Amino acid sequence: MELTRVAFSFVLCLIITIGRLEAQLQVGFYARTCPQAENIVREEVRKAVFSNVGLAAGLVRLHFHDCFVRGCDGSVLIDSTPGNTAEKDSPINNPSLRGFEVIDSAKSRLESTCPGVVSCADIVAFAARDSAALTGGMSYRVEAGRRDGTVSLASDTFSNLPGPTFDLDQLTQSFANKGLSQDEMVTLSGAHTIGRSHCTSFSSRLYSFNTTLDLDPTLDSAYATQLEQICPDSSNDTSLVVPMDPSTPNLLDASYYANILANRGLFTSDQTLMSNASTAQQVKQNAFNGFLWKLKFAAAMVKMGQIEVLTGSSGEIRLNCSVVN
What we know:
two-stranded antiparallel ribbon; 3% strand; metal ion binding; Peroxidase; glycoprotein; Secretory_peroxidase; Peroxidase_pln
């Protein structure tokens, strides 16, 4: 219990310190200009998640995919045009990324209440926090003041977003490129405790692992058999999906880490967390102290939300999240 109190104090101080480091973002940014902003977003997220709980995972992932490409600037929301394929239509994001309609609904209400004030990037950050809280995670205070970017290129996703086949070194470097530590990488990977995956993201572990083995030897054989029943060899059916955490697919909890300990991490990028003594220890700690992990997850989400933000006079406040003004 004492360790938990110390951990709570540490993470609370970390969140406060991070906020001071990025003074241009602040909690309560819309207190005077649009005091109902966060409540409006929360209401739209709650309505959507109660209708389809899977959207919570989609909205958390939307924030991650926004922040890792050109920073947290809402560029993932921009539609493609005849002359440009945008981020949302990259094969990394389409058809797997979802929740766009929730952001649009919130934006529509906000434009009616306080026109031209709340950025799409901030809506995405609020929605991710609310989704985490609604699925059992720790709520946290979101710093706001982000402005929206005006450029969205599908080609940027390939060099910025970590893939499901990444090994530990690749994952660590990908997160380091965004100013996030290896510990924060392990912590944020726990978001895979909610949501679903298309078979194509992990089927190579079942049927074509390498030149000598079809099945990835780090994958539990019983779990592999279950996955093979849902995902037949050589199938390109994009409608075939599996929960990333079969035990509690709609709860943001630490069972993701328990799965990894049982060799039931769905992606190569999940199971690879056991390939190093340091990260393996973090997996064990998170698996056996879910409350501590939730605290760390909240702090890591706050830090991720500061990646390469546009503030002040940079960027714009999009009036329609899918179109540049």
